[in-house]
Amino acid sequence: MSETSKLKKVSIVVSKGSLESVYPGLIMANGARMEGIESSLFFTFFGLHAIVKKKMDHLKVATVGNPALCFPTPMGMSMPTWMGAIPGVSAFATSMMKKEMDKLDIPPVSEFIEMIHDAGGTIYACKATVDMFNLSMDDFCPEVDKVLTVGEFYELSSDAQIIFT
């Protein structure tokens, strides 16, 4: 890739709040910063759980309606989606996923957010969602830079590659 065509900026939208939905955005933002690419994370709807202090380290694996869910390992035997509704299945799947992440030294959400922010990544919350969920800046982790409208997000993301996770 030539120097003039090299990616310089990414804006990543995180809209879902399950463990397996939040981590791709975090990994991509962190990877961008490691490559010297400017990165921002825009959390909206239930993705906001990843930056709410009381929720960020308690995210769960979505088991109901997840046709890719496998047991006993993440690439093991497929599980019928109706089994995700059985009490304890989400907790079990979350525990298994976190165990595998620990083996790879993947940090918990709060630590990952802090790492990205410390590396120069910016963290934004969606104003419409913040208003809808009756949240304030006090509800968020200290790494949240600002609550933005969608228009402000687009303005800050001009000339960026926008990625929706």
Helix and strand layout, with pairings?
Blueprint: E1 9-14, H1 19-34, E2 38-43, E3 70-71, E4 77-78, H2 89-103, H3 109-118, E5 122-126, H4 127-132, E6 146-148, H5 150-156, E7 161-164
Helix pairs in contact: 1-3
Describe the protein's architecture and organization:
There is one protein chain. The chain has 165 residues and is α/β, with parallel strands linked by helices. The protein has 2 domains: 115 residues, DsrEFH-like (Hypothetical Protein Ychn, Chain: A), CATH 3.40.1260.10; 47 residues, no CATH class. Helix content is 33%, strand content 17%. The chain contains 5 helices and 7 strands; from the N terminus they run βαβββααβαβαβ. Strands 6-5-2-1-7 form a 5-stranded parallel sheet. Strands 3-4 form a two-stranded antiparallel ribbon. α1 runs parallel beside α3. The two termini are 25 Å apart.
